[in-house]
Design goal:
By secondary structure, this protein is an alpha/beta fold. The protein folds into 2 domains: about 1-180, TIM Barrel; about 185-250, no CATH class. Helices cover about 40% and strands about 15% of the residues. It contains 8 helices and 6 strands, in the order βαβαβαβαβαβααα. The chain has helices at about 45-55, 80-90, 105-115, 130-140, 155-165, 185-200, 210-225, 230-250, and strands at about 10-15, 65-70, 95-100, 115-120, 145-150, 175-180. The chain has a 6-stranded parallel β-sheet with strand order 1-2-3-4-5-6. β2, α2 and β3 (about 95-100) form a beta-alpha-beta unit. α6 (about 185-200) crosses α7 (about 210-225). Iron/sulfur cluster binds near residues 73 and 121.
């Protein structure tokens, strides 16, 4: 096996997309992250891979922290999820689980004990408050580190506002993620994003295409400053900085 060498930074960071199946059908989510078109890799294969990775590359032990993010689709639908997290945990990996929180509470009783950090995404069209409240209660009882990502779906805006208010009762970081429904025309998108800006906070859609980012930036410029797109790179820098600041505030 080839030796692994860090070429960018001294952070050890791997993201595993363990399944592309999901029990939700969010309109802003690409089909290949929800339709289950890919056969999942067996948990034994992951375990062998990481066992050999550590054995063949002992320098991995020099990293003070080794981060693994587990995502999907919905990762709790992956059959070997508990076994995989237990293995990573026993091998001193710092595991983050990114989930829509829909798994039964019995599963969460175990998952919260094994993961170092859980990021729960709240999707206004599907997620229910009682279920989230139950999860937060379990997580807090187990002293688990968690955060909530609220997807600001323009098609379910009342629920978004309700969720903003609802989660204020908890001492948990909440990040607001701008989304654009794939079926929307540019004009309606524009209005909704301005509304987002006016009411909540600056927030760049993270995983969207460059075209959507360009629409967003254009709206931002016209709305806030009246300047032209010549400012694009500067503004992009500024908003990225804002995003980082917000993320680090959430972590503190
Ligand atoms: S919950 Fe996440 S993975 Fe599932 S459809 Fe929604 S955005 Fe996609």
């Amino acid at each position: 096996m080839n030796k692994i060498k860090s070429i960018i930074s001294d952070e050890f960071n791997i993201t595993l997309t363990v399944t592309n199946s999901c029990n939700y059908r969010c309109k802003y989510c690409p089909p290949n992250l929800q339709n289950g078109s890919e056969e999942p890799i067996l948990v034994e294969t992951y375990i062998n891979f990481f066992t050999n990775l550590i054995k063949d590359n002992p320098q991995i032990n020099d990293y003070s922290e080794r981060f693994i993010s587990i995502t999907g689709g919905e990762p709790s639908l992956y059959k070997g999820i508990e076994e995989l997290i237990s293995f990573l945990n026993e091998n001193n990996f710092n595991v983050t689980l990114d989930s829509n929180g829909s798994a039964p509470k019995e599963v969460w009783e175990r998952l919260f004990e094994k993961t170092n950090n859980t990021h729960l995404s709240f999707h206004p069209r599907y997620s229910k408050f009682p279920k989230f409240d139950e999860l937060i209660e379990i997580g807090q009882r187990k002293n688990a580190m968690m955060s909530i990502g609220l997807l600001m779906d323009p098609e379910h805006w009342d629920r978004v506002l309700e969720a903003v208010e609802h989660f204020k009762q908890y001492n948990i970081p909440v990040s607001y993620k701008g989304v654009v429904a794939r079926t929307k025309s540019e004009n309606s998108v524009k209005k909704e994003i301005i509304y987002l800006l006016g009411n909540i906070q600056v927030c760049i859609p993270r995983n969207n295409s460059n075209i959507l980012k360009r629409i967003y930036i254009k709206v931002l410029i016209e709305d806030l400053t009246g300047m032209t797109l010549i400012m694009f790179p500067i503004l992009l820098k500024f908003t990225t900085k804002m995003e980082k600041l917000r993320t680090s505030n959430n972590k503190n």
